Structure to design on (204 residues):
């Protein structure tokens, strides 16, 4: 058993037309035993930048605190928010510097560039980046997430359509993975607003 599957998780980030969506399940478990149904895996760095962390729950919380701390230092020094690509480089270097005793978490980064175009990227626990122009997934439900996203995704979706697609992909995928599920949470971020919605899924 991989330590990355110990707590279970499912995270998707998806591009739309001048917007993006990032979603995750809410289950926290120890293998097949469910401990909580409101666990947070998606974190706001600033208004137009979010990070999702799949993997070991304790490392998820530690990394979130470190990323927020580093972004605040950057903002104090530069007097501006970090660009998504800059933040991806920061996350990658922070993971790689711990490569001999790594954090067991795989990040998904989603943000809006200054011109309003969406940016999404994922990486492994050593910080090797993978960019995409449509969607990225992470977690124990990755295989079924890929299949659902491949069949449902369309380019240049409006925010409401994007919400529908990412929600259906998440809910249908976690039903096929016993380590993730118990509903989900979706953030849709556009130039002018952030919409956060909670999904109800199968409770078993």
């Amino acid at each position: 058993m991989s330590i990355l599957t110990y707590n279970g998780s499912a995270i998707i980030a998806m591009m739309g037309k001048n917007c993006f969506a990032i979603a995750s399940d809410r289950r926290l478990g120890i293998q097949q035993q469910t401990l909580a149904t409101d666990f947070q895996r998606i974190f706001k760095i600033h208004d137009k930048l979010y990070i999702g962390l799949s993997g070991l729950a304790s490392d998820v919380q530690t990394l979130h605190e470190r990323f927020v701390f580093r972004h605040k230092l950057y903002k104090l020094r530069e007097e501006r928010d970090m660009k998504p690509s800059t933040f991806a480089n920061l996350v990658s270097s922070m993971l790689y510097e711990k490569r001999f005793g790594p954090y067991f978490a795989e990040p998904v980064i989603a943000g809006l560039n200054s011109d309003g175009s969406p940016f999404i990227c994922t990486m492994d626990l050593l910080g090797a980046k993978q960019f995409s122009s449509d969607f990225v997934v992470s977690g124990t439900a990755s295989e079924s997430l890929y299949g659902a996203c491949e069949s449902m995704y369309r380019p240049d979706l409006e925010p409401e359509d994007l919400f529908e697609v990412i929600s259906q992909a998440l809910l249908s995928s976690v039903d096929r993975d016993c380590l993730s599920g118990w509903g989900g949470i979706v953030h849709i971020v556009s130039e002018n607003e952030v919409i956060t919605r909670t999904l109800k899924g199968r409770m078993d």
Summary: Residues 11 and 24 are 4 Å apart (CA to CA). The mean pLDDT is 90.
